[in-house]
Structure to design on (351 residues):
């Protein structure tokens, strides 16, 4: 069994050292697992303006020498464009070994909880033939603070508190079968890559609306990521989330039309090659067609679904958080709508 681990990094010089050290605590990296023939660890700094690449190279080399596992290799694959979707395309198609069996993607600002987390993701896929991707529970670091500030509570409310046990792609840490990853192409310049990947996997490349269940949760594994620390960052992130959701829901309908002729991966790849800014043009057209209100209703209904999906009395404790999150969402939706109506900002503010 051969494994590729891709670390997606954009200006993470302050956090990437801790993330790499967390990665090298994993049992998958140790010499003890005999069924693992090789593990290549590839850091993909994309569009960085700081010392992320240099720090990552230094820490990867130091950590590799400590493990003393001849089956481990490390390298840096720098990407000029600062774009998560593009970085994922590079990982899936260029930066991973041609004969790798599994591709693990992880963000450069997380801490992996559970020494067997990566091993459990791979084992979950091996034990679940129907599954295409294995995910882990995800939580913000502030969720574990005993004394939470008002900003902590707003941040947790905005994200739906702690995401645990939810079967979907946890973008900050997940594992795909290589044959699945090779079929996926993401539109360069898009936001909301996790949402896009989830939908692409559920719909078999946007070829059907009869969803399959391609996800499996790995037991005993969790990714903890650092939350935004100030109100301005929280609101900026939420505005981006609303724009990303609007972008995705509109794009999905377009891709379902394309998908009537087959898998949409080749179509997206061709659009990327011809015009790397095609998504910006796509959204500019949407803003022209939509009139005053551009934001998709689906972009602001998640909190209601979050409460509705809980059973009985379990709804009561989350109602205050849901109301707080809804207030943040509505304010963010107004700001997002103003941004989307300003056509020039599509190429300057968000790409």
């Amino acid at each position: 069994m051969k494994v590729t681990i891709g670390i997606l990094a954009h200006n993470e010089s302050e956090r990437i050292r801790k993330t790499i050290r967390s990665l090298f605590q994993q049992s998958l990296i140790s010499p003890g697992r005999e069924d693992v023939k090789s593990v290549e660890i590839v850091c993909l700094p994309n569009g960085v303006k700081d010392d992320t690449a240099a720090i990552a190279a230094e820490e990867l080399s130091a950590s590799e020498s400590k493990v003393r596992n001849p089956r481990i290799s490390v390298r840096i694959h720098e990407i000029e464009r600062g774009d998560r979707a593009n970085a994922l395309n590079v990982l899936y198609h260029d930066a991973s070994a041609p004969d790798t069996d599994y591709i693990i993607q992880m963000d450069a600002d997380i801490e992996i909880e559970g020494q067997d987390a990566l091993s459990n993701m791979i084992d979950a896929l091996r034990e679940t033939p129907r599954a295409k991707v294995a995910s882990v529970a995800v939580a913000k670091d502030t969720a574990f603070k005993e004394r939470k500030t008002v900003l902590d509570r707003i941040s947790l409310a905005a994200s739906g508190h702690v995401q645990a046990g939810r079967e979907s792609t946890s973008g900050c840490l997940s594992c795909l079968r290589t044959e699945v990853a090779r079929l996926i192409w993401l539109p360069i310049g898009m936001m909301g890559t996790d949402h896009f990947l989830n939908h692409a996997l559920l719909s078999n490349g946007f070829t059907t609306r009869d969803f399959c269940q391609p996800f499996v949760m790995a037991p005993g594994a969790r990714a903890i990521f650092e939350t935004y620390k100030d109100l301005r960052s929280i609101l900026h992130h939420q505005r981006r989330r609303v724009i990303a959701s609007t972008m995705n829901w509109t794009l999905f309908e377009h891709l379902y039309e394309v998908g009537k002729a087959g898998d949409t991966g080749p179509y997206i790849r061709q659009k990327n090659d011809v015009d790397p800014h095609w998504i910006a043009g796509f959204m500019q057209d949407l803003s022209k067609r939509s009139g005053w209100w551009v934001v998709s209703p689906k972009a602001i209904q998640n909190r209601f679904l979050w409460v509705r999906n809980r059973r009985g009395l379990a709804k009561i404790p989350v109602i205050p958080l849901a109301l707080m999150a809804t207030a943040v969402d509505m304010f963010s939706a107004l700001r997002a709508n103003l941004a989307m109506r300003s056509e020039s900002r599509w190429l300057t503010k968000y790409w």
